[in-house]
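Blinded run. Sample ID left blank on purpose so nobody reads anything into the name before looking at the predicted structure. Input follows.
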Amino acid sequence: MNSNIILTVAIPTYNGGATLAKTLESVSSQLMPGVEILISDNCSDDSTKRISQLFEDKYPAVKYKRQDTNIGYDRNVDYCMRSASGAFVWLLGDDDMILPGGVEAVLNAVTRNPEVGLLFVNYPHTIEVPVIDGGLCRSGDEFLRKTRFKSGFLSSNVFQKELWVKTNVAQYFDSGWIHMGFIVEVASSITSYVEPRELVDYIRDGTALMRWGGSGSYIHTGLKLVSIYSRMPGLGYSQITRRMAYLSVKGGYWKNICIAKAKGFAVSPGLIADFVRLYSGFPSFWLVDLPILLCPGKIFQALFWMYKKLSLFK
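Blinded prediction complete.
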């Protein structure tokens, strides 16, 4: 590890050519001593390599690495963490951007508080993090309460590299949520930090939503996150925090199920079994979510068809 580098902004990417240049511009324009950019290309077949090499040629602080094969999202994130030169790593999605002043603010925060294991960076969202909730957190319950479980957004996370390497993150490979697995594993036993200023955002061109949320993917992805939360009882979290974690995912299920079924998503017995296993203790699951899951998909498709027809006459 280069002792002169304090903060690595690491970008795990796969076919991110449509937005990657904007992402890199947002960071490279803020480069300063002690900061580097690491791009880990998961064997993309679009313009990712060309764009990355342009920035690598222009900025000495930019490092581009390309995987020989697609190793999957979680392993690519893990590669970024382990290959970074900085003591702290700010993970940044290839369709997100760091807002002006963000790099300096985070660099100052980790320099002043080198003991923190993870740092949350706020971003624009309907769920707000008030300024009063900023600063150090001494427990996982405090950290998750203050961040309102917004850490699911990859680019809101800055992790201490040494702590990551010491943690068994391999158990979260293929979950799509390795960063949340890490947070759940360590937050209850370390000091963390909340930066309430909005310093990062996603690039608002619709690409992120299209790539992340294909028909039905929200449902499976959400269940994988809840499976990670199911480990919380053995990690020292309070019952209130555990319930908040489950509800942070569950709140949007009814709408996502309706949309997915309207697009032809098929509900399997295994999916229903997973829902029952994870949400059987919530009355609203039995009253709302399960009936929607069991309702024939043709009903939602018909309603969606009617909605589109009626929209033509507005």
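Unblinding after everyone has recorded impressions. The longest strand covers residues 7-13.
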